[in-house]
Amino acid sequence: MIPDPSHALPADPHLTFARRMDRIDGLAHLRERFVGVDAGVEPPVLAYLDGNSLGRPTKASVARLTEFVANGWGTRLIRGWDEDWSRLPFTIGDQLGRAALGAAAGQVFIGDPTSVLLYKLARAATDAALAQGRGRTEIVIDTDNFPTDRWVLEGIAAERGASIRWIVPDPAAGVTVEQVRQAVGPRTALVLLSHVAYRSGFLADLPAITSAVHEAGALVLWDLCHSVGSVPIDLDACDVDLAVGCTYKYLNGGPGSPAFGYVRADLQDRLSQPIRGWAGAQDPFEMGPEFVPAAGIRRFQSGTPPVVGMLAMQDTIGMIEEAGIDEVRAKSVALTEFAIALADEWLAPMGVVLASPRDPERRGGHILLRHPAMRQVTATLWQHDVLPDFRSPDALRVGLAPLSTSFAETHTGMAAIRDVLRGILLGRSGLLPG
Ligand SMILES: *Cc1c(COP(=O)(O)O)cnc(C)c1O
């Protein structure tokens, strides 16, 4: 028999709890600034559980994009580059550094797609280590990292005659400080790790791991794709060398919005990146015979900055500054705690396994739920406007973007997962009535 709590209880105490949490949530008012979320209006999506993969747009971004096309691009035309646009990658970078990265001005820029920026910074760091000629020929990464991260580094190793040293983490957790200590040494050039693991949601100990890498004399590159905008980050205080992160996840920059890169100030002029485009040159309009890299962070730029792509993220960065990243994190923890409590009570009896850390100190903004039926569960939920995502072979991922997700929405989503899974286990598909 599959237990059925919704029939056993007269009223759902979890829904009462969710509504109370929404009433006392100091960030609840920010949710209404997103498209598709209006009080008293039937939402087009019942529960959006994938804001960690593609964030919702803000209403402010609708206005900002319209205004840019009509008046910015439309009337300033080519003059816009001198007036504003060419500085935008750096002014937004500085604002992001302040709001969410713990980075002083002049170290962050908005650039290329994540995969390309990861290549540029990893390659620059590897080249610098190899150029020392002291046998630092190993790049360290973990087997559970995102495909781009693994494949880009394998490509760099092949290009430069370096080798990869693999860390094999617990798939329901992530890379530990101890594992990094064992993997690094006098042969290490670079360590690349994700701050929050894209599958398990494990939150790596960034300060301790950064110190361990530095004690071995190597550089560290942090992938912040799944942490920026939901977990506080202190790049300067932790002495991080390099970082890259997505802007279309928790920063709501829109599909394919360009990534940000961080290069520690004192490292910038010692590194050279491999894509020598005119926009990274000292004087782009000199257009002379030789490439002379710009001083500072601009040397990591390659081509014309993707200005249209970096418009929307500004509205979320502003919202994070307004709310405070520590408040955002507190809500994120409360949301994942709530989802885990519901998974324990509703889903565990049906054989669902939580494959994320239970300790909130070691967990980011999403959780992973495993069950052999999750592929079918996800497909059915999408037909009913409940949108989690699926990660092969058997995992449903629940991402809870703290600025745009309410506790009631989390409750709706988790209850839908419960009902669809129960229906499938009972040999039916679709949502059960009631
Ligand atoms: C989302 C994500 C990426 C995505 O790279 P794109 O080039 O933007 O497609 C890379 N790495 C990690 C860890 C991610 O979570």
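^ pyridoxal-5'-phosphate complex. The mean pLDDT is 96. DSSP finds 15 helices and 13 strands in the chain.
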